[in-house]
Amino acid sequence: NKIQVKDLAEKINISPNKLISKLINFGVMAGINQEIDFDTASIIASEFNYELRLDKKTDEEESKDKSYDSLDFEDPEESLQLRPPVVTVMGHVDHGKTSLLDAIRETNVTQKEAGGITQHIGASAVTINNKKVVLLDTPGHEAFTSMRARGAQITDIAIVVVAADDGVMPQTIEAINHAKAANIPIIVAINKVDKSEANPDRVKQELTEHGLVPEDWGGDTIFVPVSALKRMGIDELLEMILLVAEMQELKANPNRKAMGTIIEAKLDKGRGPVATVLVQKGSLSIGDAVVAGAAYGRVRAMLDDRGKRVKKVGPSTPVEILGLSEVPEAGEHLYVVEDDKKAREVATRRKEVIRNEQLKVNQKVSLEDLFERIKQGEVKDLNIIIKADVKGSIEAVKQSLEKLSTDEVKVNPIHGGVGAITESDIMLASASNAIVIGFNVRPTNTAMEIANKENVDVRTYRVIYTAIEDIEAAIKGMLTPEY
Ligand code: GDP
């Protein structure tokens, strides 16, 4: 059960070179004509959002091989079942993200099991009308986007909290643009409506200017007035989450080997490496052989978000697992493989890579190689983040940039904001393969460090004209290199 590198590349629609680089990432050195095993191929394919399945018709022997049958990665439509939505709360500082998360969890606990203590494992599940909603514990678009930059897309719906007494603020806009860049639906929670200064209509008005038009004003964004403090509107908010989830038809096959993402992980003195996994596909059971980055092992025990021991969990369930060989990185994917040997094999390869970070291939877009990448058909959208010292520049740059779009490449400003280039801008650029341009602003030191690490192209200008000229030249392949 092996596949040639060039055949795999063709099947998953990427260039063989790109595939070879990805394999190197996983510590597998293979040439274009060499063969790799099915497990490795499946894992690589899933990184590119493809699921591999062995074609049973070609070889009767293979179809008898049960161990591979169970690795059947393509989930047929009829195997898919509805799964609970996974939600992240975002918004400006002090607008009530943490309070809202607490309110949702407490409302739920008092309903279900008064006195029950919620464990902090990185995510938790609440139930309304017998339906589950999963909440990620770390609020904010920074956490959300840094997961995305590591290739982990785990959130289905973003709740953007806006305080009714304060209105739309810079981080509200950031949150909205981060959610939009990830292509996930947004529900607006207008918080603090208990306050006498609360002005929900102002929030609606301001958000309309940013493309979020409330349903009662003819748009399609759901707004829910809440008070996290007074526990008002919480059930309505949860119901709206379920409604949006229903429209998205979130589905997964619960009856296959599990695949999930590490949400957080730590070394516990008594218990060894402990990791919270959000199971996304399939079911994870005690005793399963798993690999998550360089970590591997057998699931020795599983605890849910209430600290209860569980034996088997399905899609959209956060669980804390014990039994890994080391602490995996948050954002790593976790896969169930057939046995310990396989788990160790995959993890060992991955470990080599982590050691040889210099092998990491740069697949991020930069103005230097833009023309080449457009020609190869690898880049169809040039995503740009604009930071400036004054608001007026952002709008001006945005409009000039959009006009540079050609048949081959669409110039796409995904976020604009006033102020220095921050860590959050860089992570958004990294997650969305964007470049960052600044006008009369500079990156902070941390932002610069991360930009270097993440290979994000950051450019600063004093005049708008020069920036437009540079980008236009890059699109046409006429950019003169920077010294
Ligand atoms: P975060 O920074 O977005 O996580 O905001 P917090 O949840 O820490 O809340 C910031 C402040 O707003 C705290 O002092 C909260 O008590 C207060 N707050 C949060 N929600 C409400 C609300 O619904 N009504 C009122 N009056 N205050 C609230």
Low-confidence stretches: 56-72, 357-362
Write out the distinct hetero groups bound to the structure: guanosine-5'-diphosphate
Query: Strand tally, please?
Result: 22
Distance between the termini: 50 Å
Main sheet: strands, sense, barrel: 6 strands, mixed
Radius of gyration equals: 24 Å
Mean pLDDT: 87
In what order do the strands lie side by side in the largest sheet? 5-6-4-7-8-9
Number of helices in the DSSP assignment: 16
Strand content: 25-35%
Q: Could you say which overall geometry the principal axes of the C-alpha atoms support?
A: globular
Decide which structural class fits the backbone: alpha/beta
Binding site for GTP: 91-98, 137-141, 191-194
GO molecular function: GTP binding; GTPase activity; translation initiation factor activity
Subcellular location: Cytoplasm
Family: Belongs to the TRAFAC class translation factor GTPase superfamily. Classic translation factor GTPase family. IF-2 subfamily.
